[in-house]
Structures are given as structure tokens and as C-alpha cells.
Amino acid sequence: MSDALRELMDEAVARAVESAHAPTLAVTYSSQAVLEILRDDADAARRAAETGVTNSREHGLAPYLAFGALLLAWARAKLGDRDAGTAGFRQALTDYGGQGNKPQSAVLSRAARGDRSRGGRRGAALAGIDEALAMAGETGEH
After folding, report:
1. pLDDT tens across 66-81, in order?
2. What SS3 state is found at 101?
3. In angstroms, rounded to a whole number, what is the distance separating the alpha carbons of residues 82 and 63?
4. Cβ contacts of residue 27 below 8 Å, gap of 6+?
5. How far, in Å, CA of 9 to CA of 11, rounded?
6. Residue 62 CB partners (closer than 8 Å, separation 6+)
7. pLDDT for position 136
8. What residue spans define the domains of the chain?
9. What are the tens digits of pLDDT across the range 20-74?
10. Can you tell me the distance from the alpha carbon of 12 to that of 119, in angstroms, rounded to the nearest whole number?
11. Do residues 116 and 122 lie in contact, with contact meaning Cβ atoms separated by under 8 Å?
């Protein structure tokens, strides 16, 4: 993450904390976790996602909780708890989609990359890439 982006993210987190507004905190920590995932920094993504999940759970914010669980599962899988993280990611993806949400293609593509890194999961990785491309086409995400 560039220094300028890091400064902006830190400022956003500080403002969200200052506001003490639960939905603002949930969105901010989720955004931070996504940026950390895009940077491939699983530990920073885990910290941001855990904070967002805790906040969402405490305030009954189901949509943010489901998305945060997706991000947290990715981070856990990346940090070495591959089987539980992958299973958690797939469950969180089902829960998130069950609410009528569509995950970001970047999140799906990172999951596919994680599947690829596990031996014998090439088919799952290719299916995940196809899923991410289809989602991007459906939502117009670039």
C-alpha cells in the first residue's frame, strides 16, 4: 500500500473510531481488510477483519458480519489454517450470498489463488477464477 493510501486508511479508521458509529466502523474495517487482502498482507487483513467482525457481532450488523467473516476466513487460510480457513470462507460466502449480497470479484479471485496453492486443488482454483470473472461481468466490476 502506498504511503498516501496508508495515511488515508489510517485517517478513515481514526475518524470511524471517533464517530463510534457501529455501521461506519464495520464498513471502515471491512474496507481496510479488503485493501490488506489486495496487498497480500494476511496478518493485517486478519486484524482489520477481526475488529470488524467483533464490532458487527456486538451491534447485530448481520450483513457486515457475513462480509467480515469472508475476509477473516481468507486471512486465516492464508496464515496457515488452510482447511478450516477454506471451509470457513466457503461457509461465509454461502451466508453472505444468502443475504442477497454479491462478493467482490477481487475477494473471489484471492480465494481461487489460495485454492491453487494447495496441492490437488487446481480444479477448485479454476472454478473459483471462473466464478470471479462471472461475478465481475454480472456486476460490472473492473
Report:
1. 889 988 988 888 888 7
2. coil
3. 24
4. 16, 64
5. 5
6. 56, 99
7. 67
8. 3-85, 102-142
9. 999 999 999 999 998 998 888 999 999 999 999 999 999 999 889 988 998 898 8
10. 39
11. yes
